[in-house]
Amino acid sequence: MKTMTTEELINLLDANEDLNIIDVREDFEVANGMIPGAVHIPLGELPERLEELDPSKEYIIVCRSGNRSGKACQFLESQGFNAVNLEGGMEAYDGELEFK
């Protein structure tokens, strides 16, 4: 499984890279802030929302600590998607947040 550090992610965000970030946390967790531009798809909804994703794109998967996003990455890879797990999740992320 491919991984990315929060520092690498912040550098890509600062460079205005076109990123596809999926936040797999629950509603009550994302209420505390999300990475700007992230799409919220709770882990339990991922299988039925696969049609929203483009198999030709790379997705950076985020959760609270990196465990659920790791499971999401394994699932997405098994479905033919290119997924990258954010190491340490939101606990390690100290960049800008957006609130939805």
Automatic annotation (TrEMBL):
Q: Which SUPFAM superfamilies match?
A: Rhodanese/Cell cycle control phosphatase
Q: Which Pfam families match?
A: Rhodanese (PF00581)
Recorded hits in SMART domains, A to Z, give:
RHOD
Q: Which residues form the Rhodanese domain?
A: 15-99
Show the PANTHER family listed in the entry.
Answer: FAD-DEPENDENT OXIDOREDUCTASE (PTHR43031), SULFURTRANSFERASE YTWF-RELATED (PTHR43031:SF17)
Protein name (Swiss-Prot/TrEMBL): Rhodanese-like domain-containing protein
Q: Which organism is it from?
A: Ureibacillus terrenus
Species lineage: Bacteria, Bacillati, Bacillota, Bacilli, Bacillales
